[in-house]
C-alpha cells in the first residue's frame, strides 16, 4: 500500500447541524491505521447552512425570492407550493446570526427562553431558504419534505434532473462558490459521499452529478445506511445503479475495510472487485456477489474527530458519537428491520471489550465532554463493568446510550451509571400492553419497566421513551394502555412519546403476515425503492383517529429533530446534563403563566395567514393539519390560521384573533387586560394561559431587563 491516494469524504445535506456525524471519521481513521493518508472530510450540510447567509448568498436569495414562481409546477405539487408560500417569513440574516450566537453560547443556550427564540430563528430562515426550491420542502429546519414521488422512492423521480435540481436550489450558491471549486482544485483521486438518512439522498445524488461534471476522472463512491437501503429495498436490481448512476461504486453494509480496499485498488490502478461489500457500477462488467462482510471490532480504531469543523456546529459543546457494539444482542423484535440484516432484525451482534471501550473513551474524552454510544443497544453487564472502570479511573465525561429496560437495573447499579457520567438513556418501551409486547417479542413486562424507570430516575438519569401504537391487531383499549402508562408516570420519563407503527419489508411481521393478522401486504403505489409496506388490518384501522388524538399531547418537548425535545439529540443530552430529570419542568416553565407576567411585555410569535384564494386556503389547511403539535385531522374551515415563528400553524377562532392582535407590538398583560376591559378578567386570563402555553405570544422583555 502506497498511502498516496488523495481522498475527500463528503457528508451531504440535509441533516443535523448541531454536531458532526461519525461515519466518515470511522472510515478515515480505519484507513489511516492501514497506512493511508488522511482524507479531507467535508461536512457539506453545516457548510451549506453557514454559506446561505453570507452577503453574496443573501443577495442571491433576495433575487430568487423576488422572482419566485411556481407556475412551472402542475397539479397537487403546484397547489401545495402555492399554499406553502402563504405568509412566508422575510429572510433576516441578522436575526439568524443572533440565533446562531445563542445556540453556540455556553450560557444563553441553557436559558430556555433564549433557546426557543434561537431555534425559531433558524427554522424561519430555513423556511424561507427552502422556498426557492419547493416551498415547504424544509421542515423543523433540517428535515426534508420533498414532493411525494421522491418520498416513496420512485426511480423516475430520483433520476429526474429538473426535480433534483429544484430540491437542491437552496444550496446552489454553496455548490457553485465553495464545494465544487474546492473539489475541482483538490486533485482528489477518490471522492466519497456518505448518506445516513433518506432525506440526504436527493442532495447526495445532485452533488454526485456536479462532481462527475467537474471531476470526470475521479473514482466516485457512495456509502452509508441510506445507500445500503437503496440496494436492499430496490424492487428490481437494475434500479440501484439507475438511481446511483454517477457513482463508480457503492459500499453496502459496514464500510471500513471496503473503503480501504477501494483506496488500495485506486493506488494500484485496479478495480476494487474483491471486497464483498463493494458493488461496482455495471459499466465495469458483471461481478460475482459474495456474502456481506461484517467488521471485526477489534480491528476498528477509535475515531479521530479533530478534522470536523467544530466551530460551525450549532451547539455550545462538542458531542461525538462512538460505536463499541454493532447489531443487537436481543435481535428478536418482530417489528425491527435495521441495517444490512440477513436472517434477523439487525446485523450480527458484536461487542468491543471493556478494556477497549475504556481506552477509547479515555482518548475521546480529551477531545469532547459528551460521548453518545451510537449503537442498537448496549448489553447490561458490559455497561456495568464499563461504569465501574470509568469511576475507578476518574474519567470526566458525560454519556448516554440506548438500552433495554431489564430487571438487571437496581437502584445501586443505576447510581453507579450516574457516577460514571451517564446523564440520559433512550429505551424502546414500544407498548404498555403485555399482549402487544409478547407479539413484538420484546421480552419485557410493563411493571418491570416501571421499576427500572423508577431506579433510573432516582439516580437522576433521564429516561427518554420511544414507543408506538398501531401494531397489527392492537385494539383501542390496548393502545390506550400505552398512553395511560406514560400519562400515569410523568415523573419517570423526561422526553419522547409514541409514534405510529410502520411495516418494513425485512421485518418478521412482513415475512409472516398470517401470524400477525394482516392481509393484502403491498408496496406503496408508485414506489420502486420499497422502504415501507401497506396492508389491511381492520382492528387498528378502526381506532387510528381516536388514538392519534389521545397521544397528541404526550411529548413534553416543543421541537422536532434535531432540536431539544426529541430523543437522542445533542441538545437534549446537554439539557439533561445541566438539569437532570428536572428537564421537563425547565421546558414547561416558559410555557406557563406566572404571577409576575402582568408587567412582562409579550409579543405575537408569528403572523396570520392571509385568505385570498379559497383553493389555496384548502390546500394550506390540508398540508398543515398534521402539524398541530401532533394533533391530526382537518382544520376547521371557519378558523383563522396563525403561523408560529417555527412554521407550525394553529387554527384560531374569531375571538382568539381579537386577543392575539393586541400583541402585534410589545404589550404587558396588564395593559392588554385594560384594553379588553369589557372581558371578564378570568376569561382573559384563560386566554393568556393558552397563548403562552402554545407560544403564540412570547416574552419580549422581562421586567428586570427593562430596568437595566
Automatic annotation (TrEMBL):
<dbReference type="GO" id="GO:0046872">
    <property type="term" value="F:metal ion binding"/>
</dbReference>
<dbReference type="GO" id="GO:0003824">
    <property type="term" value="F:catalytic activity"/>
</dbReference>
<dbReference type="GO" id="GO:0031419">
    <property type="term" value="F:cobalamin binding"/>
</dbReference>
<keyword id="KW-0411">Iron-sulfur</keyword>
<dbReference type="InterPro" id="IPR058240">
    <property type="entry name" value="rSAM_sf"/>
</dbReference>
<keyword id="KW-0479">Metal-binding</keyword>
<keyword id="KW-0949">S-adenosyl-L-methionine</keyword>
<keyword id="KW-0408">Iron</keyword>
<dbReference type="InterPro" id="IPR006158">
    <property type="entry name" value="Cobalamin-bd"/>
</dbReference>
<protein>
    <submittedName>
        <fullName>B12 binding protein</fullName>
    </submittedName>
</protein>
<dbReference type="Pfam" id="PF04055">
    <property type="entry name" value="Radical_SAM"/>
</dbReference>
<dbReference type="GO" id="GO:0005829">
    <property type="term" value="C:cytosol"/>
</dbReference>
<dbReference type="InterPro" id="IPR051198">
    <property type="entry name" value="BchE-like"/>
</dbReference>
<dbReference type="InterPro" id="IPR023404">
    <property type="entry name" value="rSAM_horseshoe"/>
</dbReference>
<dbReference type="InterPro" id="IPR006638">
    <property type="entry name" value="Elp3/MiaA/NifB-like_rSAM"/>
</dbReference>
<dbReference type="GO" id="GO:0051536">
    <property type="term" value="F:iron-sulfur cluster binding"/>
</dbReference>
<dbReference type="InterPro" id="IPR007197">
    <property type="entry name" value="rSAM"/>
</dbReference>
<feature type="domain" description="B12-binding">
    <location>
        <begin position="132"/>
        <end position="273"/>
    </location>
</feature>
<feature type="domain" description="Radical SAM core">
    <location>
        <begin position="314"/>
        <end position="558"/>
    </location>
</feature>
